[in-house]
Amino acid sequence: MTRATLFGLLGWLALTLASPLVAQPFTYQGYLRQNGQPVNGTVSLTFRLYNALTGGSQVASPINQTVNVQNGLFTVQLDFVAVWTGEDRYLEISVGSTTLAPRVKITPAPYAAFAASAGFAQRPWQSAGSNIFYNDGNVGIGTSSPFARLSLGGGNADTKLAIWQGANAGEVMGLGVGPGQFRLHLNNASDRFSFLDAPGGNEIMTIWGSGSVRLLIQGHIRLSNDSSIFGLDQLVGYNDLRLSGNPNGLPNIYISSFGDIGIGTDEPQARLDVRGGNARFRKYNTTFQILPNELFGVHQEHTVTLDILNVNGTLGVWDNLRVIGDLNVGGGYFSLGGGTNPTYRRVDAFVSDIGGGAYVGVLKTYGANGSENVRMAWFTGNPSNGALGVLNAANNPEAGMAVDGGGYGVVWADIKNFRVPDPDDPTRDIWYGCLEGPELAMYVRGTARLVNGHARIELPDHFRKLADEQGMTVQLTPLSPASKGLCVVRKGLDGIEVAELLNGQGNYEFDWEVKAVRKEHRDFRVYRPWDEVLLGGIDPAEAWQARLQSIQERQARQQSRTDTKGVQR
Predict the structure, then answer these.
(1) Burial class (CB in 10 A: 0-12, 13-18, 19+), 496
(2) Helices assigned H by DSSP within 113-189
(3) Could you tell me the domains of the chain?
(4) Quick one: residue 471, left, alpha or beta (phi over 0 = left, psi -120 to 50 = alpha)?
(5) pLDDT band, residue 222 (cuts 50/70/90)
(6) Is the pTM of this model over 0.70?
(7) Cis preceding linkage at 421, omega within 30
């Protein structure tokens, strides 16, 4: 089709409606010819609606129809939906790919349903199919002066709006008002008020009556822009309770159906499970905090710090404390037993300030009489060297070990022994006392053989490394009755020359023993000041009194033994 001319007939509305905003279908008749001849046959027509004769904007979607044309005449039903607002409308028709011109104006005849006359005020309600509506003001029921879009009378009538009514006027469910009150009316106390997730769907929140208020929530409660909840005596969840300050995140507080409480988690693994942060407990001016993954202010995995905030406080444990793994105490004092009563305290561990910015650790234990019986500390004057003292009932050190100012390890006691079980009688032990003397001596001994009256003793290298040659002594014991006697011809750490007396030429064995002072200990002091081994942290005056008491007790024991007859050895 190369050229077509359309003589359009004005269309008219097939159904007249009162609203300018609803669908207004109408029937359009036209006459179509091609090259001056009426068209016969089936053609494809496209109808478009514009707001201007030329140009302008299309105001609805195009309508495509396949039309049977006889002798140039055709009839179509057109529905551009809700486009009739009172403004001019122009119809444009295309035959196949050819658009006909000019556009056809839709005349007032099919548009008469919309009128801007004064008579419109006499019919404020408009219809849209089976619906009616009103846009131009407020609606009052029971009042001629409505102050809202819908006002249900003045005064405080019990029921303003009935949502459901049963067999009589008393069977009503609806909405009402009272003085300063908005009311929800139910038919009786056993009825319930419910929120559904869809029409005819599931109840997500329900309020029951039955003489008491019960609230069932299948889901979440979200409180927005509210800083607190008050006046809430009891809140019961059927399965669990979740409180969240962030509607897009996990619940901040979660109470499971088993009674477990989670803070920062909805899967508590204990009665109280706190995730993602620290925990604080405050009473009066004291704040106690638990800091996971932190050790004394430094991040460290798999650690926990217990802290009293902003003060040098004290943590107390009334009952037993068991630790598997490391225990770090950041404060300066730790005790076991007795609570705050020192009468029953049995262990003290603390950090002692010795001045000059120096600190030393001290550990003390106490006996049944409450007196100190063991102290791990330092020697007075040597705070960097360790010392251990074992004290008697009068607090006087009777045994100990330490590193002295010269860097030597020192062990002291009244009695030094070794003890082993009796191999023939497991009910008893064998005790030997250590040989003592006024020097730090060492010895080595052995057996050698005299050949033609002469012998040489080679000292072992370990003895040579530690012994002081000055003052070294040698003892010889011949093992032959024919011996004329033995003597030391020469002695030194490099060896000892032995000969038989009287130019003897004997050939026999002899025992020998060599004693020597240890190197660097030639100036061993027998008499020393009493407080030379005074443990650090002990009051000297108290230590002196304890010492005097200990001396008196020792003298009494010695006197008692002297007076006892028949002492067995």
Answers:
(1) buried
(2) none
(3) 4-118 (2.60.40.380), 441-517 (2.40.30)
(4) left
(5) low
(6) no
(7) no
